[in-house]
Write a structure and sequence with these properties.
Helices cover about 30% and strands about 15% of the residues. It is α/β, with parallel strands linked by helices. It has 3 domains: about 45 residues, no CATH class; about 130 residues, Rossmann fold, CATH 3.40.50.720; about 180 residues, Rossmann fold (3-Layer(aba) Sandwich). The strands form 3 sheets. The chain has a 7-stranded parallel beta sheet, sandwiched between helices. A 5-stranded parallel beta sheet has the order 4-3-5-6-7. The radius of gyration is 28 Å and the shape is elongated. The relative contact order is 0.12.
C-alpha cells in the first residue's frame, strides 16, 4: 500500500471498502464510511488525496462444495481454505443417513475408511469426484461411480514408507516372538526364553504378493537383513527389477518363501486369496503378514494352519471385520501379532495423505487430475 501517513483506523476503513476490481481509487466507499474516519483522513479525502489499495474478491459466485467425511489433518484442510472458489464441511457422523442428507449439492467428497454405500450417494446431483484418503477403495461403490462418470481417486505412494515400516515391525515381532516375550516378562515368566524359539531372518526368502509401491519399499528395508526378495505380481514390469525373483504361479511362490507379505487391494480376485489351499502351500514354519486389506486372508483357515503348527506365526494389521469383535477366535491366538489397521497412521503420513487427498479434489476441479490416481478411468471418458 502507498504510504499515506494515515493511522491504522484509516487503513481499516480502506480494507472494509472492498470493491469489484483489483486496484481501485475507492473514494465512494470511503465517503460511505466517513463517519468512522479520523479527522486527518477526512481532510485528506476532502483535499483529493486518494489512496490506492488492492482488493481481493471471490472469483466464483457459486463456490465448489466439498464434503469431508471423517476428519483429516489441518494442514490438508488449509489447502481448501486457501482457495476462494471452494468451501468445505467436515462430517464426523459417518452413518449412511447423515451422508445422504448432505450430498445433494456437493461437488466432491473426501473419505477415509468409513463405508460409503451407493444408497447414500443417490441424491448427489453435482458430485464430480470422490477422493479416498488412502490407497484401498473397497469402501467406495466404484461401479456406481463409474456408471455416473464420477472418478474415484487414491493417494498414490504417499503412505508407502509408513506401511512398509509397519510391515517390517510385524515381521520382526512375529519372528522374534516380541509380543509373547513382552507379556511373559511382565508376568514374571523369564524362563519362556528356553521354551520358545525365535527365527533368524538372515538367508530367508521374503515373498511379496503384489510388488507395487509398498512392496518395493518393504523390499528395500528387508534386504539389509540378508533376506532374498521374491515376488508374485502378474502386472509388474519385471525388467525394471533385476534383483527380484518373480514367480508365474502363486502356489510355487508360496512354497519357496519363508515370509509371505501381502500388498494387494481387496477385490473379487483377491478376496480369500490366502485360503486353506494357499496356506497348505506355504513352507512349514513360515510367517504370514497382512497390512493390506482384511478379507484377503481367509481367517478360519489361518487359525487352522496355526492350530496344526504349520506356521510359525502371523502379523495382522487388517481384518475381515473391523474392529475385531470381542470373542473373535483370532484374539485367542498367542502366535499372532495384532495392530489396529494403523500401518499408515504415523503423524507424518497422516498430514501427507490428507494433502494428497485434497490435491486430488482440487485437481479434479481444475481439470488437471492425474489419471494414474484414478481407479475407475472409464469414468473419465
Amino acid at each position: 500500500m502507498q504510504q499515506s501517513g494515515l493511522n491504522r483506523k484509516d487503513h481499516s476503513c480502506l480494507k472494509r471498502s472492498i470493491g469489484m476490481v483489483s486496484l481501485v481509487w475507492n473514494r465512494r466507499a470511503c465517503r460511505q464510511l466517513e463517519g468512522s474516519m479520523s479527522p486527518r483522513y477526512s481532510t485528506a479525502l476532502a483535499e483529493g488525496k486518494l489512496i490506492p489499495f488492492q482488493t481481493r474478491i471471490n472469483p466464483m459466485k457459486n463456490p465448489k462444495k466439498v464434503l469431508v467425511i471423517q476428519q483429516i489433518a489441518q494442514p490438508a484442510l488449509d489447502l481448501f481454505s486457501a482457495r476462494d472458489d471452494v468451501t468445505f464441511e467436515v462430517l464426523t457422523d459417518t452413518s449412511a443417513d447423515a451422508i445422504a442428507a448432505r450430498v445433494g449439492d456437493v461437488d466432491a467428497i473426501t473419505i477415509r475408511d468409513a463405508p460409503l454405500p451407493a444408497t447414500a450417494l443417490a441424491g448427489a446431483r453435482n458430485l464430480k469426484v470422490i477422493s479416498r484418503h488412502g490407497v484401498g477403495y473397497d469402501n467406495i461403490p466404484v461401479a456406481f461411480c463409474s456408471e455416473r462418470g464420477i472418478p474415484v481417486t487414491i493417494i498414490g505412494d504417499v503412505n508407502a514408507v509408513s506401511v512398509a515400516e509397519h510391515t517390517l515391525f510385524l515381521m520382526l515381532a512375529v519372528a522374534k516372538n516380541g509380543a509373547r516375550f513382552d507379556r511373559a516378562v511382565r508376568a514374571g515368566d523369564f524362563g519362556i526364553r528356553t521354551r520358545l524359539a525365535t527365527v533368524e531372518l538372515r538367508g530367508k526368502a521374503l515373498l511379496l504378493v503384489g510388488y507395487g509401491r509398498i512392496g518395493q519399499e518393504f523390499a528395500t528395508r528387508a534386504r539389509p537383513f540378508g533376506m532374498s526378495i521374491t515376488a508374485y505380481d502378474p502386472f509388474v514390469e519385471r525388467d525394471r527389477f533385476p534383483d527380484v525373483l518373480f514367480f508365474d504361479s502363486l502356489q510355487e511362490a508360496l512354497s519357496k518363501a519363508d515370509v509371505v507379505s501381502l500388498h494387494v487391494p481387496l477385490g473379487e480376485k483377491t478376496r480369500n486369496l490366502i485360503d486353506a489351499d494357499a496356506l497348505t502351500q506355504m513352507k512349514p514354519g513360515s510367517i504370514l503378514l497382512n497390512a493390506a486389506r482384511g478379507g484377503i486372508v481367509h481367517e478360519p483357515s489361518l487359525i487352522a494352519a496355526l492350530d496344526a503348527g504349520h506356521l510359525h506365526g502371523a502379523g495382522l494389521d487388517v481384518f475381515a471385520r473391523e474392529p475385531l469383535p470381542a470373542g473373535d477366535p483370532l484374539l485367542a491366538r498367542e502366535d499372532i501379532v495384532f495392530s489396529p489397521h494403523c500401518a499408515a497412521l504415523t503423524s507424518e503420513c497422516l498430514v501427507e495423505m490428507g494433502k494428497a487427498t485434497v490435491r486430488n479434489v482440487l485437481a479434479a476441479f481444475d481439470g488437471s487430475l492425474d489419471t494414474a490416481l484414478v481407479v475407475n478411468r472409464s469414468s473419465l471418458v
